[in-house]
Amino acid sequence: MISKKVTMVGAFAVGKTSLVRRFVESIFSEKYHTTIGVKIDKKQVQVDQEMVQLMIWDIEGVDVFTELNTTYLRGASGMLLVIDGTRENTVDAAQKILDTVTNSMPETPVVLVVNKCDLKSQWALTNGQLSRLNIAEENIFYTSAKTGECVEEAFSRLAELTLGSAIME
Amino acid sequence: MATEPKLEPVQPAKESGQDDYGKLRSLILGDDYESVITERIKSNETDRVAEVLPDAVAKRNAKDDSLSQQFSPLIQSSIDHAVNNNRRQFAQMIYPVIGPAVRKAVASALTEMIAKLNYLLKQSLTLSAVKGRFKAWRLGMSYGEYLILQNLHYQVEQVFLIHQETGLLITSLSSDQVIKKDPDMVSAMLTAISDFISDSFESTSADSKLNAIKFGDFTLLIERGPSAVVAIAVRGVVHQDVENQLQEVSEQVHEKYSDALETFNGEAKGFADVEDILESVLIHEEAINEEDTSVPWFSIIALGLLLVWGVVTGVNNAIMESKVSQVIAAIGETPGYQVLEHQLEDNQLTVAVIHAPGAKSIQQLQQQIDSQGFQLTFKNVLSELSSPTMLASILSQQYSAKFSVETAEAGFVLVARGTLTDAQVESLKSDSLVTSHFQSVRYEPIILSSSIESQYYAQFYSLLKTINNTAIHFDVGSVMVSPEESRALTSTIQNIKALSELAPQLKQKIHQIAIMGYADPLGDTTANLSLSKSRAEHIADMFKANGITESLIITWGMGAKDKSTVPDNLQRRVDIRIITESLE
Ligand SMILES: Nc1nc2c(ncn2[C@@H]2O[C@H](COP(=O)(O)OP(=O)(O)OP(=O)(O)O)[C@@H](O)[C@H]2O)c(=O)[nH]1
Ligand SMILES: [Mg+2]
Questions:
Q1: B572 and B483 in one domain?
Q2: Which parts of B139-155 fold into alpha helices (H)?
Q3: Which candidate among A104, B242, B315, B379 keeps its CA 20 to 30 Å from the CA of B342?
Q4: B280 with B341, same domain?
């Protein structure tokens, strides 16, 4: 079996940890415990005929005090960039992360996840806002860690992309 | 433009003039001329540049940063050079600053992960230690102490080969008795923890990276090479030999698999036979004992042969042997000293000892011991045996009684349990180990702590439950165990063995181990019956081959017995059921 390291990045409280929990353990909690440093989980995904073991590095969210710690990104074959559909400024944070990452590892595939899509009434994003992130349509997913919507799909897509990629230095 | 035409006519005259002058010079000054003149210019030039250099640098720096740009790679490489050549000095300089900071940072930010790592490792290592722990408990000492008393200073229980860049596990091996638990996670977490540390100090120098984590009984040693990390879980006291072997293994892996490491993409291809290298660091109990016992065997046989041939040197050998044991015994009898191993090479007798702080110094011992003509050297395995509990365990062996430690207001009290002769009690009173570390000695009858006992019962029942819930699944029509299922099989076998070892000590009797084979409903009934029977028998064979008591095993072929709602793939299985009874 093949193993791949992937990372979860994005602003704080966008739901990175919740997405991983939903994906790995199929559970969700309203409680918010911010991640310190990094938390690691794993899950196997089937891509075509092959099993891929994803080692998921859930990295602490960026905020005004915490910058993205790029050491944790080393050797990743894919990245799940998460924004919160109810908070417009999480797109800026995502933009900033993309800038840093595309510099140091330009070929790492990125899947963009717009999370909390169950909160339609508080939705704050307009369609145009995502286009400046320059991510291909087929790599964008509207998810909810709460209902589980599209979570599997997003991780499956990421797994698929990791197989096509070489490990970046 | 205007000056050009003026210059042109002058040029030829000047050239020819110089030419003549030059010829004249070389006529007068001969061949040395050229070399003398360049030498002259060089030294002048150097002086001149030396004069203006500081000013020039300052001026240029004020203008732009092109100088620093030019210099930075140079400086970088000379720093690299200096660091590489004086690693030790740099480490020594940096360590006092970084050491405490590392501890603090790790403690505050990563306790949770370390706790989880600890849990994972503990889970996978405890079963193997159940037996030893049980004995240790009976003797009233901690497992770590027990290991030392068993002359087992260490046991490497698991080794991980980790890809440096990604933190992905390439492969892991464990000593026979250990059940692997999520080596993938262990490997990723180790990498994350050391990433965190190196990031916190923005340092990539290999020496500042994490190289050991200690959890209770065991230590994780981490050897970081350029493209792979080798980590081992060691139980007991880490011996220099283990560290050396670890380093060796890391070097060998890098040498042999440099290409595979370079192109590693998450799949352990290209690492054929790497286990053979990793295996060499899995030094464990048996290996040490084998070494210990093989020495006398060899000399007995050698002695026998030599005696047959009537050669005098044979007798010499025997005399040597007995001299060695006299020296070893003398050291062992010195209060506070314990001999772990010894080695004789030519006339050089090396003795590995542990000694308590209150005991005689090694120098004193060296003077006092009759070395029987050998060149005697000591290897101090564990110099800082300061903990009173450790001392208690050494005493336990010397006096074959059970000692433990209690804290009192003014220091420690040594509590003795079991039987001691009057003479022993006397010598205990004047033993320097005791007098230097304990305020007083108290004697008590043997008491078994029931809470620990119940812990072992809990372990027993949890093993039983795990085994009774095991199902091993099969492919359609197959009696062979697939690679995915073989892990379940291995762990079941290990669990049953651990259970059988615990049972008699907890006064539990294992009556039978039933292996029940099932088949899915496809195909005809007789065929299914015989298929299910073969499945059960195949598993029984595996059990027997792996040392599970044959007379306890019974096999049944159940055919297809499940409800039709159970998926076929879950119906094709073997269940295990153990029946036990408490004799108390
Ligand atoms: N309604 C709703 N709430 C969500 C969803 N995902 C996460 N949350 C909530 O958002 C909060 C933050 O979630 P986390 O998963 O901890 O966020 P995070 O990105 O890991 O945060 P940091 O670790 O601090 O960077 C929690 O209270 C979650 O319950 C979602 O899809 N829908
Ligand atoms: Mg989080």
A1: yes
A2: 143-149
A3: B315
A4: no
- A168 to chain B: closest CA residue: B165
Q: Are strands B218-224 and A140-142 parallel, antiparallel or unpaired?
A: unpaired
- Which tokens go with B130? 């159940």
Same domain, B281 and B305: no
User: What's the rounded Cα separation, in Å, for the pair B181 and B185?
Assistant: 9
Measure the N-to-C terminal CA separation of chain A; round to a whole number of Å: 22
Mean pLDDT of A66-78: 85
| Amino acid symbol at B568 | D
Calculated CA dihedral for residues A42, A46, A47, A53, nearest 10 degrees: 20
Ligand of minimum distance to the alpha carbon of A19 = 1
Taking only the tens place, the pLDDT of each residue in A77-94 is 999 999 999 999 999 999
Q: What is the pLDDT of residue B454?
A: 63
Q: Is this prediction's pTM over 0.80?
A: no
From B380, B412, B440, the end of a domain falls on: B380
Give me ligand 2 centre to Cα A15, in Å: 7
B228: CA distance to ligand 1 center in Å?
A: 35
Are residues B331 and B353 located together in one domain of the fold? yes
The predicted pLDDT at position A56 comes to 94
Q: Report residue A115 as tokens.
A: 């999370």
Within a domain: B116: no
What is the CATH number for B562? Answer: 3.30.1330.60
What does the pLDDT read at residue A65? 61
For residue B311, give the CATH number of its domain.
3.30.300
Amino acid at A92: D
Q: Is residue B578 located within the same domain as residue B514? A: yes
Our measurement of the distance from residue A64's CA atom to the centroid of its chain's CA atoms, rounded to an integer in Å, reads 20
B456 with B582, same domain? yes
Q: Which range marks the domain in which residue B192 is found?
A: 152-285
What tokens were used for B126?
A: 């405890």
CB spacing of B266 vs A169 below 8 angstroms: no
Give CA–CA dist B266/A43, Å, rounded.
Answer: 14
Nearest CA among B68, B76, B185, B75 for reference residue B124:
B185
Pocket mutation for ligand 1, best pick of A12, A20, A32 (most atoms within 8 Å of C-beta) = A32
Q: Note whether A57 and A20 are within 8 A (CB).
A: no
Which of B166, B190, B262, B482 would you mutate first to test chain A, the one with the most A CBs within 10 A? B166
Q: Please tell me the distance between residue B433's alpha carbon and the centre of ligand 2 in angstroms.
A: 53
Chain B positions touching chain A (beta carbons under 8 Å): 109-110, 112-113, 163-169, 184-185, 188-189, 192, 195-196, 198-199, 264-267
CATH of domain A2-163: 3.40.50.300
**A36 with B195: Cβ contact below 8 A:** no
Is B113's CB within 8 Å of A37's CB? yes
- DSSP class of residue B239? P
Which residues have CB under 6 Å of ligand 1? A 12-18, 29-30, 32, 34-35, 60-61, 115-116, 118-119, 144-146
Residue A47 clears pLDDT 80, i.e. is over it: yes
Query: Each residue of B346-379: b (16+ CB within 10 Å) or e?
Result: eeebebbbbbbebbbebeebeeebeebebebebe
Strands B375-382 and A110-115 come out as: unpaired
Q: Which helix (H) or strand (E) holds A76?
A: none
How many domains is chain B built from?
Answer: 3
* Residue B391 lies inside a defined structural domain of this protein: no
Domain boundary among B237, B262, B285: B285
Ligand 2 centre distance from Cα of residue A84 (Å)? 13
Q: Where are the domains of chain A?
A: 2-163
The verdict on B454 and B584 lying in the same domain is yes
Q: How much is the pLDDT for B225?
A: 83
With beta carbons under 8 A apart, name residues in chain A contacting B192.
37-38, 40, 57, 72
Asked if residue A109 has pLDDT above 70, the reply is yes
Residue to mutate, A8, A16, A18, ligand 1, most ligand atoms under 8 Å from C-beta: A18
pLDDT over 70 (residue B272): yes
Nearest-CA residue for ligand 1 atom 12 is A13
